[in-house]
Amino acid sequence: MPDDEDTKLRLKLVKYFSAGVPHNHALGIGVLEMAPGEAVFELPYDLKLVGNPDTGVIHGGAITALIDAASGAAVFAALVDIIPIATLDLRIDYLRPAEVGRAVIARATCYKMTRNVAFTRAVAYHDHPDDPIAHSVGTFMLSTKQGPAL
Amino acid sequence: MTDEPPTGSPPEGRSLIDRLIDAKRDANYQGLIDAVPYAKFLGLSAAMVADELVTTMRFGAHLIGNPSLPALHGGTLGALLESSAIFELLWRSETVVLPKTITVTVDYVRSGGALDTHATSIVTRQGRRVTNVRMEAWQADRARPVATAHAIFLVMRG
Hints:
Chain A contains three helices and eight strands. Chain A has 150 residues and is of the alpha+beta class.
């Protein structure tokens, strides 16, 4: 694919995932980076995401949503043409609580693509992936009837 | 600004553990759920239905992941399933320790439509330190789940 085509597709993906997905928008998820097979999303701290009101720590479910969104985007970013995809499964290991008042970043990579299935891994962190909050692996079915129409 | 609480003091109102004790005494979980901002954001409620604790996520347009189908965002289903498991553990356990999620695996088996979604959980093993839970979520037809999951929680203090 020529470079300008590649850039155009990536810009389209950035726009879609930040504004075109209502739940991403409701969570305040922003796209930091889209590269071939890779997506970096950010979830800003917000009081509505708090899971433990005694401590102010955000709910694990919000991190699940962030990782799910970034992992799906990484698959789109690995595809040559946009085809519908569907999440088959997603495993998330919670390694430590997110810090109060800080944005969480998720970096997802689509590390293997077969004819039918894409495989992803993702890490959520504040400052550096080497100090992770959560780690995840996922699988996605390709060419389903589901998925977004970009 | 002398009326402001000192930094580091707990937020106003009762602590989550106090609310949990109230909920158990009154057999009413809604007060506990309403104290969790993220549960309110998702539109969660819980009710005992034929001896089962059923957690419901009321449909809202902000839960959509794919507007063209439309379909619920996978993250909302994951959050519902994880919340269902935590409510089940809080409901069944005699102690009042908040379970900490170690790992969750969600299988997405059908696309979730623009409908209310329900979830239940079963404790498969209650250990001294960790508890294994299986969860299931469905919409109109319980025989056709939209997602199933299993999770492991740390259930000891510290």
